[in-house]
Amino acid sequence: MPELPEVESTVRYLKERVEGLSIERAVILWHRTIALNRGKSFSQQVAGATITEVFRRGKLVGMRLAGASDQFLFTHLRMSGSLDVLPSSFDVAPHDRVIIFLSNGKSIRFNDTRKFGRMYLTPSPDEVVRSLGVEPLSAEFTPELLQRLLAGRKRAIKPALLDQSLIAGLGNIYVDESLWRSGIHPLSPCSSLPEDAWRSLRRSIQEILSEAVSLLGTDFGDGVVDGGMYRPSVYGRTGERCPRCSGEISRIVVGQRGTHLCLSCQPKPRKARHRVKLTRGAKAPSQKRRKR
DNA sequence: CAAACTCCCTGTTAGC
DNA sequence: TGCTAACAGGGAGTTT
């Protein structure tokens, strides 16, 4: 699933292929993908505009569109989204949701199997980006800031790190990886972490994100959007050996999210309020099932 | 106000 | 082997 490094890769890919080109028209194949669009139809709004800049903010791909009135087009890839640039003569692919035809005979294809991805078209970027927290690879992201953001909270560290309004761009993979590298249990209440944890955690987050960015994202083999070379140490490696201590990697659930960790490198906090459910054990009955 | 829960989706997989 | 139901997950919206 695309997180900051994968989105950064997408942005770099798009930068060299679409910056400076103009949009001829757009076709919406799944209407709900367009989550924000003031005024006329999406296609009418973007037709004729020039893509002057492609950038990233958190997990969002941003495009500045210069036209009759300036617009910003943001794309959130969510779970399964990808943006590709293909010759316009190529057929529509399964799961293509939006196609943007460009002036050079190519087109941007927003492909999104699970339909969670969204596009936001707006004249004011702040409307989309306002709620996002600090960029974790920026100089602004200091140990002091991290501590100030989190230390006063009672919630577990993992859901706090996933909160995009605090830090923008971390997802399940890189949070698990960062907590492992810093030896912090994901259920540790933020307020229980020692002073030096914040320095370590900031360092782990930046190291891992930088490494993943330079390797073009995480290698899954099955992902359409990923395809990078970053190899997780614990994420998705339940039952395998911890690279640091050779202990067994466990999988638990934290805040409804699958969570991977090494229990000997990341000792359990004393008074975890949540139950720890091991995948390998007897499966707990799932108490929440929707009714419709 | 912070935190937790619900729902959106479909390909994959566990379980029988 | 074939089928079904559970599962996965980011974040907007809702509830506690």
Could you name the CATH class of the largest domain?
A: Alpha Beta
Please tally the β strands and state the result.
Answer: 11
Domain module count: 2
* CATH domain topology of the largest domain: N-terminal domain of MutM-like DNA repair proteins
Strand order of the largest sheet: 2-9-5-4-3
How does the major sheet shape up? 5 strands, mixed
| Percent strand | 15-25%
- The helix tally amounts to 7
Helix content: 10-25%
Mean pLDDT: 85
Q: End-to-end span in angstroms?
A: 28 Å
Structural class from helices and strands? alpha+beta
Taken in chain order, the helices and strands follow as HEEHEEEEEEEHHHHHEE
Which geometry do the CA atoms define? elongated
Characterization of the model:
This protein is an alpha+beta fold and 292 residues long. It has two domains: 4-129, MutM-like, N-terminal (N-terminal domain of MutM-like DNA repair proteins, Alpha-Beta Barrel); 143-262, Helicase, Ruva Protein, domain 3 (Orthogonal Bundle), CATH 1.10.8. It contains seven helices and eleven strands. The protein has helices at 4-18, 42-46, 126-129, 143-150, 157-162, 172-182, 195-214; strands spanning 23-28, 34-37, 50-57, 60-66, 71-76, 81-87, 96-102, 106-112, 118-122, 249-254, 257-262. The strands form three sheets. It has a five-stranded mixed β-sheet. It has a four-stranded antiparallel β-sheet with strand order 1-7-8-6. The chain has a two-stranded antiparallel ribbon with strand order 10-11. The longest helix is centred in the last third of the chain and has 20 residues, at 195-214. The model is unreliable at 221-225 and 272-292 (pLDDT under 50). It binds a DNA duplex (16 and 16 nucleotides) through loops.
